[in-house]
Prior knowledge:
Order of helices and strands: HHHHHHHHHHHHHHHHHHHHHHHH
Number of helices: 24
Protein name: IQ motif containing B1
CATH topology of the domain at 1-140: Leucine-rich Repeat Variant
Distance between the termini: 153 Å
Mean pLDDT: 77
GO molecular function, one term: calmodulin binding
InterPro entries: IQ_motif_EF-hand-BS, IQCB1
Low-confidence stretches: 575-588, 594-617
Radius of gyration: 60 Å
Structural class: mainly alpha
Number of strands: 0
Organism: Astatotilapia calliptera (Eastern happy)
CATH architecture of the domain at 1-140: Alpha Horseshoe
Largest sheet: none
CATH class of the domain at 1-140: Mainly Alpha
Amino acid sequence: xxxxxxxxxxxxxxxxxxxxxxxxxxxxxxxxxxxxxxxxxxxxxxxxxxxxxxxxxxxxxxxxxxxxxxxxxxxxxxxxxxxxxxxxxxxxxxxxxxxxxxxxxxxxxxxxxxxxxxxxxxxxxxxxxxxxxxxxxxxxxxxxxxxxxxxxxxxxxxxxxxxxxxxxxxxxxxxxxxxxxxxxxxxxxxxxxxxxxxxxxxxxxxxxxxxxxxxxxxxxxxxxxxxxxxxxxxxxxxxxxxxxxxxxxxxxxxxxxxxxxxxxxxxxxxxxxxxxxxxxxxxxxxxxxxxxxxxxxxxxxxxxxxxxxxxxxxxxxxxxxxxxxxxxxxxxxxxxxxxxxxxxxxxxxxxxxxxxxxxxxxxxxxxxxxxxxxxxxxxxxxxxxxxxxxxxxxxxxxxxxxxxxxxxxxxxxxxxxxxxxxxxxxxxxxxxxxxxxxxxxxxxxxxxxxxxxxxxxxxxxxxxxxxxxxxxxxxxxxxxxxxxxxxxxxxxxxxxxxxxxxxxxxxxxxxxxxxxxxxxxxxxxxxxxxxxxxxxxxxxxxxxxxxxxxxxxxxxxxxxxxxxxxxxxxxxxxxxxxxxxxxxxxxxxxxxxxxxxxxxxxxxxxxxxxxxxxxxx
Length: 617
């Protein structure tokens, strides 16, 4: 025998089953939309059939508490492209959702329901309405959605401010379609008609926004239906609010003239006369209350005093802020000036460095030209060619170095990385093999383990072995007398070596002096003028030995100065060659070839003349 379930239990099971189906992730938005429409329509129809009026309220509360209405809001918030353009089903779901939100008893979740959930529902409905605005074939769907919004506003007055400040509602108002404007005005008329206390529960700002919308339709639209609906809304607000609306009407200057000029003869002149009479009556009251000029003057004085007080107070509070701003501005300007001065100083320094470099280079070239003038004409070209060769060698070395480094960085980097990896692997393998071999070697026993002290017999045996070793390996030590004799012999040998070395050095210096003298004489003879033009002064230079010596010393000094002032890249080739000795042993064959036996005979046979020349030098 089946037990008949109660209606409450059946509704709970249906709601839970619907919630489980909606939480299925495989459902598409279109399937969810159709499922919600069918389930909510059936549930609301079945609950409306019951005689008990609390059945429908309980069902709506169960739908909210279970989260089904939240799924409805999510589906309505989707873009029409996600719903495959099924806007009629979306409008039906909007109507069902607004119906479910009216008459709900959220219980302990009342604050969340009114502050969070209902604004999200209104935003979703207005978003759907904004998407339907630009489609002329969906006027009936738009009317259905706007009726749903009006039904929500009639039940929950606090949502009016949310609707008037919504971005989607502003998009709807911007539309130039007459039908859309008419639907907006009719929505407010139906809301005020359905709930007579709707306007009394609104704030002054909300009432002013609503009144601004109605008067804006009168000012912008020229359609008689929109104008009649707007006029009817204003009169309805005036009848429900009474005197509270009249001061607000005066804030719209020129409203009476607009009604009289633009909307006369449209079929609702009676309503226009009523509204103009309300405005005129309020103007008479205001003019009576402001009839006294003294009161006006007193009000102006009070306002001036109050504004001056506020201004002085504001200036006093702004002094600190102004000082802070000035301080920051001055610090910033000072920093900019310092940066600019530093930049100018750096540029000036760079310019001075460049100028000094140019001047140094110019002086160097001038000195180089002066030094080149001292060289013989036949040596200038060879010297310049040698300098160019050195410069070319330096440039080539730099270029080859750059080319090799680039080649190394492009081709050898991978090889080095591979070698480094191989070394790392080998190091790890060797460490592993060393540890394994060390583990296989048995531990050594310490040398002190098992040792005993020396006995007397063992000590006597060791002493005998030491005596035998000393007797076998006798010492060959030298006596002190032999050491002193040996020392004297070494001193005599060292003294003789030093004396012969000093004599050899003196002989070498004498030979070098003679070579220098002869070389100088040869250069002077080679550069001497012909005998036909020789003067007495020129003859004295050849007869006096001081002249050739001074000329040779001057040439050597000029050569050293010229070599020391060469640039570094021209002296790179001379670093490895070492100093050249012009009077060394390598020039002896050349001198012998030039002078023949005269030089050799003079050095070997005539020692007296050589000594005289040495004294002269």
